[in-house]
Amino acid sequence: MARATTLFHVSDVHFGVEDKAAHRWFADAVARERPDAVICTGDITQRAKHREYAAARAWFAALGAPVLIEPGNHDMPYYNLLERFRTPFRRYEVLAGSVGSELALDDIAVVPLRTTVRAQSRFPWSDGVVKADALARTVAGLERLSGDPRCKIVSCHHPLMEGPPGSPNPTINGDAAFLALARAGAEVVLSGHVHVPFDITHEVEGRPLRMIGAGTLSTRLRGAVPSYNVLRLDGERGLELELRQLEAG
User: Fold this and answer.
1) CB of 76 within 8 A of CB of 118?
2) 39 is in which domain, residue-wise?
3) Looking at the 3D structure of the chain, how many domains does it have?
4) What does the DSSP 8-state code read for residue 158?
5) What one-character DSSP code corresponds to residue 191?
6) What is the pLDDT of residues 23-43, one digit of tens each?
């Protein structure tokens, strides 16, 4: 029997307000189980400070596994507004270039979707926005995988929908993005942001698309304990999700 492909999905690690015990717990599991890849769906830092990025770089590098990271709304400069508006992702891109990997998996293809923007027409600027050019890049990436038998996963920071299609959605253009991704062949969307894990499947035009959210490994809890997801894919059982939660003590 072929070995299952295993991904560890983590989000909102928030260096600067990280839960050090949760970070050790996650890193120990990576060292012990050797997943095929680690995917982090954003909010790597709390205030995008240089020292927070340095701590993140050391932590991800020490995992010893292929890493794919997405930026979150906390990963753009908070205090340097000139940098935020001119080069908002420069610090993130340095980190991604240092520890990020091109994933080469036999059974899974991961395509990123950027949902973070430097500014938007509402306040606060923390919720997601799917811009047309960002969506076009992701759809093009999925279309290039047409005919590819691998499971097609999209990784982003913000959940694309809060409820069923058409319900109030905090992610601007999230519904349109959800439909476009389903049409382009995406099967799963991984995200974070809300600090609470979830697993929801919606169907649009007969196309099911599964949304999986990871919790947080930070001290910024919102009613859920620190957690991360383990995704396993094999030919017999399909994609299985295991939620791992850090128990008190």
Assistant:
1) yes
2) 5-245
3) 1
4) S
5) E
6) 999 999 999 999 999 999 999
